[in-house]
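Entry 14. Structure prediction run on the chain below.
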Amino acid sequence: MFDIISIGAATTDIFIKSAELLENKRFLSLKRSSKNEISQSLICSGGGATNSATTFSRLGLKTSLISLIGDDPLSEYIQTDLINEKINRQFLVVNPKDRSDFSLILVSSNGTRSILTSRGSTRLESKNIPWNRLKTKWLYLTSLEGNLPLLEELIGFSKENNIKISFNPGLRELKQRRQLIPLLKHLDFLLLNRLEAEILTDTSHKNSSFYDKLKLFAPLIAVTNGRLGAKILTPSETLFSPIINTHPVDETGAGDAFGSAFVAGLVQNCSLEQCLSWGIHNSASVVSALGAKAGILTLSKIVDCQPKADPPLAERL
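Output returned:
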């Protein structure tokens, strides 16, 4: 029996940080035909499933994942990281006819980044899910590359087997909002960033009814807003936490770090305030290092950094 199984993307991430990346409010760019120095680089595993599974494992949960990878040199980075993080690999699907997904991540000197992604030709399908062997307390779903029939099947399976389910949709799911919305009420937790929440509600966050409208979609929702903090929504209350002041090295994986630490708290029966604190601290630690995994906290560290300040980190609105 696993505590939690992550389902979704497993990629190889290639990080390139350079002070010569030019930045304005909308773009990262390099001068045409220029040669530029790299100040820092990293090749490691990435993707929502491996990132979240790493948080769960470091926070003491018995963890597995279901992801699709190719049989190529890039997959070795993924497999090695999973072994090092003590993440069970029995459900990992290796497709010898496809290549592993990879991303090239350009990071500026202040931590903002732009991502180029190369995806394989296939996606997770129902046939890749070992339904009879899914013995777990929670499922943590990241982007399914727009496969809403699989999402519906996973939700139905969870309800039939008393498994709690969390979902962090990608843009391919959100583009099918009319078909997606009826499924969300069956979730135990929904994770969105502000842009994703605006797409889902078809409403600007500046609209006074934005959060009230969002509360109708799922019983428990987190909305992250980058350097402006995060809100937790239930039908009866709203909690807010600012971010922790830190010098961001790379913002990649901040959402994965927040959502997975929050759910890890739920698995361990923490209060919503504690879960929010876990998410905020894990996210702050991740953005202070290059890559989506280096800064992920262990259980002892995340417990030690519980808020002791007055007022507390999380506040009810």
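The domain at 2-22+40-316 is CATH 3.40.1190.20 (UDP-N-acetylmuramoyl-L-alanine:D-glutamate ligase).
Filed with the rest of this week's runs.
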